[in-house]
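Appendix C. Worked example: Gamma-secretase subunit APH-1
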Amino acid sequence: LLALGAAGAVLLQELCRFACFRTLRKADAGLATLSEDGRSPISPRRMAYVSGLSFGLISGVFSITNILADSAGPGTVGIHGDSPYYFITSAFLTMALVLLHTFWGIIFFDACERRRAGGLALVVGSHLLTSGLTFLNPWYEASLGPIFILTLCTGLWAFSTTGGSFHNVLKCLSCKQEPEGQAMLCSALQVPPE
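Step 2, the predicted output written as C-alpha cells:
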C-alpha cells in the first residue's frame, strides 16, 4: 500500500510539473507580447532550471522536515540495532533529490518543448525508480549508490540537453590560459579578465 502511495505521489508531482510548464509557457507568450522587440525576456532554459530547482527545494524541505521530526522524538537513532548513519544518509539522499528534481525539470521542459514522449517517460520512470529505491532503506548501500549513479547520469543528460559539451567545459576551465577570446569568454562567465 505504501509503494502504491509513493507511485501515486510521483505521478502527481509529474502532473504538477506539466501544469507548471503549461502555465509558464502561457506567461512567456504574454511577456513576449508586452516586450518591445516581441521576444520573451526569460528563456525557456531558465524557466526549466528555476522550475526544477523550485521542485527540488520543496522536495528537500519536506524530506528534511521529516528527518528533523525524527531527531526530536524520544529515543536515539541506532539504539535498537538501527543504522547509526540514518541522519547522514538522509542528508545525502535529500541532496540527491534536490539535484534530481532540478535535472528532471530541465529534461522535462525540453521534452515538452520538442514533443518527445520518450524524454517524458524517462523522467517519470527515473522518478519512480528513485522513489522505489528508497524502500530499500535502511540498507543504505543498496539505495544511495544507485541513486547517486542516477543523479550523475541525469545531470549529464540535463547538461547535454541545455547545449553543454565537453569542449565548452574545457574552454571554461582554460579561460586564464587563452589570451585570445579571453575577454569574451570571461564576460560570458562574468569573470573580470586578468
